[in-house]
Amino acid sequence: MSEHPVIGEFGLIDWIRRRNSAAGATLGIGDDCAMVDFEGAPALVTVDMLMDGRHFRLAEDGPEAVGAKAMGVNLSDVAAMAGVPRFAVVAVALPRDSAVDVAKGLHEGIRRMTDRFGVQLIGGDTNAWDGPLVVTVTLLGAATSRGVAKRSDARVGDAIFVTGPLGGSLFRGRHLRPEPRVAEALALSAATDLHAMIDLSDGLSSDLGHILEESGGLGAALDAEAVPIHDDAIDHSRADGVPALDHALNDGEDFELCFTVPADAADALAARPPDGVWLRRIGAIVAEPGLRLRGADGRTWAIEGRGFDHMKGPSPR
Ligand code: ADP
Ligand code: MG
Q1: CA–centroid distance, residue 158 to ligand 1 (Å)
Q2: Percentage of the chain surpassing pLDDT 70?
C-alpha cells in the first residue's frame, strides 16, 4: 500500500474499527489480541505479517531468523494479554526461485520458537510467486483464570513498568531475535493486580500512547532518568547522534512489556519482582492527556508518540 500522509496506520485502523462493531467478540479491534468466547472457553487470536524489505532482509538475515521472528512477534502479542500461546497457522508467499530452501529454513526457525513456547503448528498456506518473501503467522492462545490484561485498563494513579531496557533494536539486528515475555507476563498476572498491558513493538512513546488512548484519553508522567536504555541504543546514539533516550522512547521492536498496576501494589512489585522477571518502574498514569517526561532537575516536557507507523515511516531496513 502506498504511504498515506493524512490518516496513517492507526487512523486507518480506527476507520476500519468504526465500521465493525465486533458484536459477539469479547474483545475486538484495538488490543494486542482479539478475544472470543469459543464454546465456553475464552480464546485469544492475533495475526502479524512480515515482509522482506520491511521487517527483515532475507538475503542478509536468512530464512531461519525470519521464521523465528515471525513466530516471536505473535508470541509477544499473546504475552501482552497475559495469555498462554497454544496453536499457530502459518501462511507464506515464497520467492519462486528459492521456494523450497526458504520454506525449510523458515520452518526451522518457526519450530525453534513453537518448541520453546509449547505451541503446536496446526496448519497454514503455501504459495510461491515472483515477489519477495511474505510470512503471516496467526496464533491462538488461552486466557488464564486470572483473565487477560487489556490496553484499556489503565487508571489514574497507576504505576507504569517495563520489563527490559529499550532502544536500538535495529542497530545490531536484535529486532530479529524477539524474546517474547510469555512466562514473565503470566508470572506478573499471578503476582500482582495487573491493569493495562501492551508489548513494545512500535516504540514506548507510541505503545504507551495506545494504553492511554484505549483507557479513555489519560496521560502519563515518565521519569526520564528511570527509562531503561539498552546498550544498543547507546551505541546507536554514538553512531547517529540521536540521544539514546530518544532511541529508548521511539525505536520499535524491543518486544518488552509495558504495563500498569495500582500505586498501592507497585512498591511491593518493584521490591520483589517475580522470579526471573526484570522490572523498571518508569512513571505514573495521570488524568491530563498526553505523555510528559520529568528530568532529574524537575523540568518537565511533553513528548509525542514518535514510534513506528507503517504508513508514515520510511522503510527501516
Ligand atoms: P500489534 O502491534 O499489537 O500487532 P497493531 O498496531 O498491528 O497491533 O494493531 C492494532 C489493532 O488493530 C489490533 O487490535 C489489530 O488486530 C487491529 N488491526 C490492525 N490491522 C487491521 C485490519 N486491517 N483490519 C482489522 N483490524 C486490524
Ligand atoms: Mg502488540
Answers
A1: 25
A2: 96
Alpha carbon of 48 to ligand 1 centroid (Å):
8
Residue-wise over 102-120: b if at least 16 C-beta within 10 A, else e? Answer: bbebbbebbbbbbeebebe
Residue where a domain stops, chosen among 77, 108, 142: 142
**Which of 9, 29, 36, 211 to mutate to test ligand 1, by most ligand atoms within 8 A of the CB atom?**
29
Residue 314 lies in a domain: no
The confidence band for 38, taking pLDDT boundaries of 50, 70 and 90, is confident
Look at the chain and report how many structural domains it folds into: 2
Using a 6 Å CB cutoff, which residues line ligand 1? Answer: 13, 16, 29-32, 48, 77, 201
For residue 131, the one-letter residue type is G
**Stated pTM of the model:** 0.94
CATH number for the domain spanning 260: value is 3.90.650.10
Q: Are 107 and 101 in contact (CB under 8 A)?
A: no
